[in-house]
């Protein structure tokens, strides 16, 4: 039967698979980039300007996924409303904004990146709001823990 | 904090240990320690009632207000 514990484990597994995918993309991006350009009958000369922003995005993506993994591990250990989790969420939201800046700048070279920029701004904002909720929850929990 | 907890004083007067009071009141020794050391943020009336009952005192004997001097 499906329960919270299995849900947390699934989140951890998916996060780690994504971490492996992001790190292995370092080697596969040029090949995937060429395939994409060929499928759209675009010039191979565009390859560098197409994949350079993606390489830049790998760093904040890896940081965000690492923080997500730490967050999920703490949640698995029943450490939910702790300052470490708000710190992780803050870092994840900033990583989203950094990717938004990179893809926003890259949209000058390849316009569809603007859609990634918009999505990352939205994701960063949602994560930031969740971080605010966690911060408030920690204050309430603290108040509760110290009520005798 | 402006509210001072004079629990140690009452415990000494009534010659009861912290552990014994915690057991009688029904709270953990850790929570009683939090109360004694002034780290508590709030006290339930039910807890205060039990403490006063066991120590045979008034809330004012345990709680004292001292205005913080502004520096």
Overview of this structure, please?
- The complex is a heterodimer of chains A (148) and B (71).
- Chain A is an all-alpha fold.
- Chain A is built from 4 helices and no strands.
- The longest helix of chain A is centred in the first third of the chain and has 36 residues, at 4-39.
- Chain A is elongated, with a radius of gyration of 19 Å.
- In chain B, 13% of the residues are buried.
- Chain B is globular and about 40 Å long.
- Chain B has helices at residues 7-14, 18-25, 29-36, 45-55, 59-62, and strands at 3-5, 63-65.
- Classes of the chains: A mainly alpha (148), B mainly alpha (71).
- At the A-B interface, loops of A face helix 3 of B.
Name the largest protein-protein interface in this structure.
Answer: A-B, 5 and 12 residues
Instruction: Calculate Rg of chain A over CA atoms.
Output: 19 Å
Tell how many strands the DSSP assignment of chain B holds: 2
Neighbour order of strands in the largest sheet of chain B: 1-2
Percent of residues in helices of chain B comes to 40-55%
């Amino acid at each position: 039967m499906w329960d919270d514990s299995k849900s947390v484990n699934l989140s951890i597994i998916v996060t780690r698979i994504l971490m492996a995918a992001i790190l292995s993309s370092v080697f596969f991006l040029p090949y995937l980039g060429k395939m994409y350009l060929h499928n759209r009958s675009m010039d191979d000369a565009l390859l560098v300007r197409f994949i350079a922003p993606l390489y830049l995005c790998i760093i904040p993506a890896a940081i965000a996924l690492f923080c997500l993994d730490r967050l999920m591990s703490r949640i698995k250990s029943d450490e939910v409303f702790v300052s470490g989790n708000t710190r992780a969420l803050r870092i994840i939201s900033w990583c989203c904004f950094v990717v938004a800046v990179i893809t926003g700048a890259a949209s000058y070279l390849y316009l569809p990146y603007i859609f990634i920029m918009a999505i990352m701004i939205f994701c960063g904002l949602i994560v930031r709001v969740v971080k605010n909720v966690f911060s408030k929850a920690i204050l309430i929990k603290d108040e509760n823990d110290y009520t005798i | 904090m402006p509210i001072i907890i004079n629990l140690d004083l009452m415990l000494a007067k009534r010659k009861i240990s912290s552990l014994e009071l915690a057991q009688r009141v029904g709270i953990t020794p850790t929570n009683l320690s939090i109360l004694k050391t002034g780290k508590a943020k709030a006290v339930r009336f039910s807890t205060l009632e039990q403490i006063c009952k066991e120590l045979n005192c008034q809330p004012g004997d345990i709680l004292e207000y001292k205005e913080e001097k502004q520096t």
